[in-house]
């Protein structure tokens, strides 16, 4: 059963609110709209980049009907914390189902060679990168590294974008994983400030870690990032 069907089967629709992350693609918010409900945006935890239970709790109104976490880049949302918030209010907890470029966690399956290679590449970068803030590693919490998302220290988006241009000019593949938080898109615009979401949108950058990334490319990523030091001043 898909996400929209799950919501409608639970009787969630017109007049109901479903809490979703803004730091993600718009798919989850769109699924809420297709069910006839209203997406309400909560902030993320800085370590996981997924919904923060405390922010979700502060967002709930009397019309709240469900909480919909999105697992990002290989990290799972704090389902235990989110379930505790949902259970206190009798809300439905629905994990958004999507396995694409920006998602997440691994679908249940045997660990194949491609996945092992991705993990090994991520471990290589974790141990050697110095010019950026590497993904948080929490004991007991697995990271599937569907994307390897770092933070570029400095003054937010200008420094991150300059850093990305410098990487590309030196042959390093990279992209901004979430260009614009959903609550700032024209069709979803909300007058609210989500501090961690804004910070992530301004700082985060995805580096190559897929199975096709060879040792030579990994070495180049480390050498270039560490040489740049995380800060690249704009030319006058």
TrEMBL record:
It comes from Streptomyces hiroshimensis. This is DegT/DnrJ/EryC1/StrS aminotransferase. Keywords: Aminotransferase, Pyridoxal phosphate, Transferase. Belongs to the DegT/DnrJ/EryC1 family. L-glutamine:2-deoxy-scyllo-inosose/scyllo-inosose aminotransferase subfamily. Gene3D superfamilies: Aspartate Aminotransferase, domain 1, Type I PLP-dependent aspartate aminotransferase-like (Major domain). Its cofactor is pyridoxal 5'-phosphate. It comes from the Bacteria. InterPro entries: DegT/StrS_aminotransferase, PyrdxlP-dep_Trfase, PyrdxlP-dep_Trfase_major, PyrdxlP-dep_Trfase_small.
